[in-house]
Design goal:
The chain is mainly α. Helix content is about 55%, strand content about 5%.
Length: about 130
């Protein structure tokens, strides 16, 4: 068996892309329910989970941090945003303009993550040649 960490970045980027996809679904649901009375918006927070998994040590290289990430602990969770104030009388707290901006931002993140995964595979291919 070969002991390698060649796929560490790919695995972390894959988890981040899955979380971004899940967030895209949550934001799309929010937009679809913009007129549903008492609907509370949902979101996904993966960045804080990843930040905790990578650790706070400034003197450790990113390669080392990514190598020590326990992938089973990186689980994106959908949460309901009860704290966000409802500006409407029907209790719905979805702001359509804000949701559209967050959806566009998330789609750019997703595309960047996929580009990063593709680049890692290209790096592996060039090493194997």
């Amino acid at each position: 068996m070969i002991n390698t960490n060649a796929f560490d970045y790919i695995n972390v980027l894959d988890k981040a892309a899955d979380a971004s996809w899940l967030r895209n679904q949550a934001l799309s649901n929010n937009i679809a329910n913009v007129d549903t009375p008492y609907y509370k918006r949902q979101d996904v927070d993966f960045e804080s989970e990843l930040r905790k998994a990578l650790g706070d040590c400034r003197y450790e290289s990113m390669d080392s941090k990514v190598g020590h990430v326990v992938l089973s602990r990186l689980r994106p969770q959908v949460y309901t945003d009860y704290a966000d104030y409802a500006y409407r009388l029907d209790g719905n707290n979805v702001d359509i303009e804000n949701e559209n901006v967050m959806l566009a931002e998330n789609q750019l993140k997703y595309q960047g993550l996929l580009a990063g995964i593709n680049q890692e595979f290209e790096n592996l291919q060039s090493v194997m040649k």
